[in-house]
């Protein structure tokens, strides 16, 4: 492999951020592509993923995984094509999605592969979004943690986002009344017109709390929380008996070190006998194919819609996470690569 | 009934408290005992219950039940003997426990009865504590909400209290390592020596946080929370993956109007995939007999120990809730009555 390829370009972590990682925390370096060892594959990467959770992967504070080390390739989901394989069950030409990092070529053990992509009729990038991390997070978070019942009012924060939009649509398909929380007229329209929310509320409006109350005349049965913070405080005040709050992300909180303060939740949970439960995609990753088997047919019929925000080239990666938190994307953010020797 | 009885003395709510109800919020009045209507019974009350939850029953803020009205008899569990019955299935001489209010005689519909007490070998007052509200709260909160597994570290706040002490003992009997949080040397000793906690930590000590950490070398799998507040904050920092937090009470918080602030919990719940869930006894009251059938044998063999704090006479009732919050009781607080015409 080495001989026929241009050098591999990689995005490495240069400095450990406090809070949201910015462009200056990363550096682009070159390294030779390493041939596969026993049980390894070489992947030519087509798309890199950019996800809010990546903030947590580089912060030093305790998290659900070890933080990325300084000088290491930034951890990331990616999709690409196997160019060389010394791993059983994986062959050159297979399209695979997995934890390949922010780089153009990935030489990784077969265990880094989450799934072989078997939807040749659908865009490869979907394996990172609606048929990948985001779709599966929405599917399992909704069906296994939030567990809505037909007729429930389901509130979703970051409702137009790549997870939230799937949650909203799946909940509506399950017979729920869906209310989206997002920001600005473009995203509120998108929520109503494209993702089928019964109502969409702008959390930046001074009338947010009363708008939300008006949008939930029967209270809130399920809250799929991607933000935490003041948005969640407003939702908590509206929960019904036996409400379920699935904590999926904390996008509105710039740093958890030290943890910010807010109204205590215990009395809401006690008097409403409500359940607040955190989950992460990785707990369900071994069931990714199951989620895809439920989601892909919905994508094909158009029942499940998605948006993508495609950046071009590895050089757009360092600033890409900060851009998510600046709210500049509309849809799942991915980076399209033209790996050396392939462009 | 009317003719042969002295007047009924009752404790009524005179003024609505903000926060903890004090003696001056109540008044003792006299009223004739009313004979039973169709479907009603007349109960000669033997013991009144005094419970921390009664604070919530008189506060105006939204709760799980309608607040007690001004001028109404204070809502309360009580145990007593049926003196007259026009209700099917209940006969004079039956000992019953139910929502009879703070009064010496209660003329109530049969639906006010939670259970006919069928443990003549055990003290009647236990029907209010270890075999009543407290025991059943501990039983269902632990087995249905917290769901400990053998080997789990289970932390209990108000560990020497009438709910906490049962939780700690049941968890130990279920093969868990139990750590109690309480205050002062008397209660910490009681936790270790009488209720079998592996460790007991004094939350009033300046070393509380490090003491708690040292008492939980393997982290915390289950937290049975009776306090909320700073005590819970310290426990949250120690939870393990998949921890379960059963929110049973909020004793450490003087008022929820407005809600006090504290460190936000979302990131703990998310990164640890933990569950925080509130519950109240009333959700399980229809299964009270089931809990008693599990608890009474443990009381008889001495495997489940309890303490009582017995006050005498109806006149001790008005200050009795405030006294709980002053921490003056050691064990389940009950009030023993000598109803007029019976003493």
Protein described:
The structure is a homodimer. The first copy, chain A, is of the alpha/beta class. Helix content of chain A is about 25%, strand content about 25%. Chain A is built from nine helices and 16 strands. Chain A has helices at about 55-60, 135-145, 165-175, 185-195, 210-215, 230-235, 265-270, 290-300, 320-325; strands at about 10-15, 25-30, 40-50, 75-85, 95-100, 105-110, 115, 155, 175-180, 200, 220-225, 240-245, 260-265, 275-280, 310, 330-335. In chain A, strands 3, 4, 5, 6, 7, 15 and 16 form a seven-stranded mixed β-sheet that branches. In chain A, strand 9 (about 175-180), helix 4 (about 185-195) and strand 10 form a beta-alpha-beta unit. In chain A, helix 2 (about 135-145) crosses helix 3 and helix 2 (about 135-145) crosses helix 8. The relative contact order of chain A is 0.16. Strand 13 (about 260-265) of chain A pairs antiparallel with strand 13 (about 260-265) of chain B, so a sheet runs across the interface.
């Amino acid at each position: 492999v080495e001989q026929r390829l241009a050098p591999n370009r990689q995005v490495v972590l240069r400095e450990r951020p406090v809070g949201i990682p910015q462009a200056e925390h990363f550096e682009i370096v070159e390294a030779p592509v390493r041939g596969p060892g026993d049980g390894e594959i070489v992947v030519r990467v087509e798309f890199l993923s950019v996800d809010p959770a990546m903030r947590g992967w580089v912060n030093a504070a305790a998290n659900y995984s070890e933080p990325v080390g300084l000088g290491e390739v930034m951890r990331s989901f990616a999709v690409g094509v196997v160019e060389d394989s010394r791993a059983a069950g994986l062959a050159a030409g297979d399209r695979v999605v997995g934890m390949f990092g922010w780089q153009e070529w990935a030489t990784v053990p077969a265990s880094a592969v989450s799934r072989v992509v078997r939807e040749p009729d659908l865009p490869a990038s979907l394996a990172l979004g609606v048929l990948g991390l985001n779709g599966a997070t929405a599917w399992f978070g909704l069906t296994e943690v939030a567990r809505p019942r037909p007729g429930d009012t389901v509130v979703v924060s970051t409702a137009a986002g790549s997870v939230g939009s799937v949650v909203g649509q799946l909940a509506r398909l399950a017979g729920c009344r869906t209310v989206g929380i997002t920001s600005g007229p473009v995203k509120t329209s998108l929520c109503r017109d494209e993702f089928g929310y019964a109502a969409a509320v702008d959390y930046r409006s001074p009338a947010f709390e009363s708008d939300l109350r008006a949008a939930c005349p029967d209270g809130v049965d399920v809250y799929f929380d991607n933000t935490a913070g003041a948005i969640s405080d407003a939702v908590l005040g509206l929960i019904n008996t036996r409400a379920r709050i699935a904590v999926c992300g904390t996008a509105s909180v710039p740093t958890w070190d030290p943890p910010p303060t807010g109204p205590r939740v215990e009395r809401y949970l006690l008097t409403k006998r409500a359940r607040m439960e955190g989950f992460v995609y990785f707990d369900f990753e071994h069931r990714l194919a199951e989620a895809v088997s439920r989601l892909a047919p919905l994508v094909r019929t158009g029942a499940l819609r998605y948006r993508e925000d495609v950046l071009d080239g590895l050089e757009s990666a360092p600033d890409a996470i900060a851009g998510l938190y600046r709210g500049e994307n509309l849809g799942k953010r991915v980076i399209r690569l033209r790996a050396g020797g392939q462009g």
